[in-house]
Design a protein that fits this description.
The complex is a heterodimer of chains A (347) and B (258). Chain A has 347 residues and is an all-alpha fold. Chain A has 12 helices and 2 strands. The chains are: A mainly alpha (347), B alpha/beta (258). Chains A and B meet through helix 8 and helix 9 of A and helix 2, helix 3 and helix 6 of B.
Chain lengths: 347, 258
Amino acid sequence: MTTEPDSSADAAEPRGAASATAPPTDPPPAGGPAAASSGKARVGVADLIFKNLTRTAGIGLLALIAVIATFLVLRATDALSANTGNFLTTEEWFPNASPPKFGVAATLYGTVVSAAVAMIIAVPVAVGIALFITVYAPRQLSSILGYIVDLLAAVPSVVYGLWGLIVLAPHMKGIQLWLNDYFGWIPLFDADSVGRSLFVASVVLAIMILPIVAALSREVFLQVPIAHREAALALGATRWEMIRVAVLPYGKPGVISASMLGLGRAMGETIAVALVLPASFNISEHILSPAGNTIAANVANGWGEANDIGRGALIASGLVLFIVTMIVNILARAIVARRREFSGSAA
Amino acid sequence: MATRIDVNGLTAYYGKFKAVADVNLTIEPKNVTAFIGPSGCGKSTVLRTLNRMHEVLPGARVEGRVLLDGEDLYGAGMDPVNVRRTVGMVFQRPNPFPTMSIYENVIAGLKLNGVRKKALLDERVEESLRGANLWEEVKDRLGRPGAGLSGGQQQRLCIARAIAVEPQVLLMDEPCSALDPISTLAIEDLITKLKSSFTIVIVTHNMQQASRVSDATAFFSLEKTGDPGRLVEFDKTSKIFSNPTEKRTEDYVSGRFG
């Protein structure tokens, strides 16, 4: 035991010796420059290639967006100049008539409302699923469920849409009547009759976006550092309080991003909505009434029999969808950025 | 306020692995008790059993008794949530809530207890931050993010957060290991000041620190990797560092171990 200090002194000596003999070992570094510079050159070339590759990809992406926008605008202009109605406020869609008269108001309304209601239904459920998997479920169940949710998120959403359409929608009458009976005093749930309504479309959309929002939220909650969860628990937080104090605030930006992805899908969803809604062109706040249409569904329904002006009109409505999606995303980013210094990314 | 802790026949497991076996010791009120020992000897595990944070990890469990002024923390009907409100904890890495301001961090525990009155919260924030020797440095920026402070300040913020709920015991798990020497000194001064109000238990790898701040020291060790850690010796700090009974303790505190 008493030899320990000596041995540590021994250990220190060779290190001192090594530094003492450093000058004689100069030659290798001196011979090195050639090798080092050739290594540097190789790194330089790889760097250059990678830099140009990423730059090309970045510019290409921007160019692609510009091309798409230009295409939409060009194709839409002809139809818009032939339009005898106001494109933004008219609740009719007769672009193939002469003179053509059409407006995006009803379909835009249907798109926004159905997507918004779908979000209201889907996001809380998705967050609940994600929290159960990451915080409440026992470890083995949690990994199995996590795997299943990831798998479900990878299935194309139209599959869920078809299920919702064929299996669920026929059973929606009961809940719609119930909502109408008990919440009919709210104009939203007031209806003379219920049927293939915006509400049913919203429920189908909610089912379609649920897996992706749940899977992404789960990923987000998994990122919450154990240290923050333990900090909350050590203060005497219950599991739910720990979620409220540590998990949800930390995960909020991620959940917003996940929701935006879901919202994008909901607003762009075509076939399932086109099959549910009766494709009527009127704005009604009674979302249980059998009425409504969305931009995407309208494109799917109308493209086949449209003439040139008709196609231009549909493209113009597509442009509106493009702009609305961008606005929503910008707003979401603004919300996330507002408290960036509190997001934990600064830590 | 401050509280005596009796640990009787404590054995802690991680799943099937027995991390630490048969620990018996008594922690005196308003004292600083240091846990020292090589890595893996179970000193942090024992610390975490004192406020039932050990069982937070999947598969972790405890046998034996921990008496807080005679009341068994692991007795039937004891709610771990209540235990943790009585026995506060400061962690190895400063972990203020990144989504909260300095002010919100300090009151996080109070809010969990249902304190809502602004005047009372303001008062407790100042009191706790003063208690943690941080008030003068942050009083003009209480609304700024807690994560924006330096490491040492963050750790003192965490101490303020822990003492804001007025616990009886304060557990510290290597509170200075991520800090520079000046911040470490600030925390050590703080520990000496806090012991007039709290029973403090500190885990440390730094033996100078243990000898500087603690009144009693527990030395934990293990025979070889895979064996459970055991309490080798527990005595007054002055005795442990000058004239320990066990040869293994002497080897460790004098820097000769293996």
